Amino acid sequence: MLTTRQVAISPAMKETNSTKFSYFCDIDDSVREGESKTEFLNRHAEDLAECFEGSQIRVLDATRHDDLQINSKTNITYVPIRFIADFKDFGVTIKKIREGEE
Fold first, then answer.
1. pTM: predicted TM-score of the whole model, two decimal places
2. How many whole angstroms separate alpha carbon 29 and alpha carbon 42?
């Protein structure tokens, strides 16, 4: 049972001059008036999560038991993904920066 899901999107801490990208997906929606690009991407966090399915992840599993009770916790974390969001009038194209080619 999934009890918590957190998606965090933030601007890159480092600029890139890479021209090597892999197409991931499109989001068919426009930025709302007064909304920043980061706010738009956070509003579409679920769409982005679907885009990045199949990307590299880390899994950490912990099980604890006390007498008659067993608790299990599994954390699944996407390895940070650097991507470009190409904003257009009626949508956004998401492209992943190809590894090692910056």
1. 0.65
2. 13
One DSSP character per residue, 14-78 reads S------EEEEEEE---PPTT--HHHHHHHTHHHHHHHTTTS-EEEEEEEEEETTEEEEEEEEEE
How many CB atoms lie under 10 A from the CB of residue 51? 19
Residue corresponding to tokens 């950490």: 60
* CA-to-CA dists, residue 69 to 3, 11, 44, 66, 73, angstroms: 18, 42, 38, 5, 13
How many Cα atoms within 13 Å fall on the side-chain side of residue 54?
5
Q: Provide the pLDDT confidence category of residue 13 given band limits of 50, 70 and 90.
A: low
